[in-house]
Fold:
Amino acid sequence: MNQAVVPTGADGAMGTAAWTALAAVAPISWGTTYLVTTEFLPPDRPLLSGALRTLPAGLAVLSFTCALPRGRWWWRAAVLGLLNVGAFNGLLFVAAYRLPGGVAATVISMQPLLVAGLAMVLLGERPTGWRLGWGVAGVAGVALMVLRGGASFDVLGVGASVAAAVSMATGIVLTKRWGQPDSAGLLSFTGWQLTVGGLLLAPLAVIVEGALPALDTAAVGGYVWLAIVGTLVAYMLWFQGVGRLPVAAVSFLVLLSPVVATALGWLVLGQRLTALQAVGFAVAMVSILAAQLTPQAVRGLLSSTLWTGHSATR
Structure:
């Protein structure tokens, strides 16, 4: 098992903040997927989009690095690629088709709570009441942001959403448990998983959705964005963050995806943001930030802020 040790002290805190910021790039970029899909990509082709965003990137990495798994990393890469990429994206697309986006996002936002439970079983990390409480608050914040009145609940769609959350949560914990192979770098490690996920989705796309449709310039640009920024760069930074940060804390960063999707809908698509949605937005953001800290650190920050304010008024 190859797990990175997060340093302590002031330098360690700065390093942790930097790794957290880099890892946050992944869910932020994933939050652009809804806008790109609805505005630039062919309609009703979710599995094709999943395959085109993963398989070309994975094969490009393999051809560049010329590094294949060795020994037990053959099956480990297959399992992680299935959980983190292939199954997660496929199930997420099924949920997106059968449920309103808000319902799917709310179900999947339970992922930090699932990670906490799996980390206790597989990593021996006991969840703290602090993070469990913020996990519940995060789900509530996402629900306020994205749920609409009269939302419909399809049994298969809800099941797919739950399975997608379990898939990604299990992938996160196993990535932390197994670490990365000493014989290959982060780029190869990412490429293996993207290739496995793409090989799972590509035949399903052909069987379910048919042949590749004609693509215009906007669609090609959308797929390039999703493949390079939303997949290759995002997953590299994500796996790096999972390896270096506490698994319970990094799992909260996934909540940034619905936050970004909601913000882009408001800023770019002109979607109206109600007062209740604004409250949910704030609750989700506070949950993400609070989960990166300990109660002692929060008290220290508040004390420092209050002392600074008191000194300034003297």
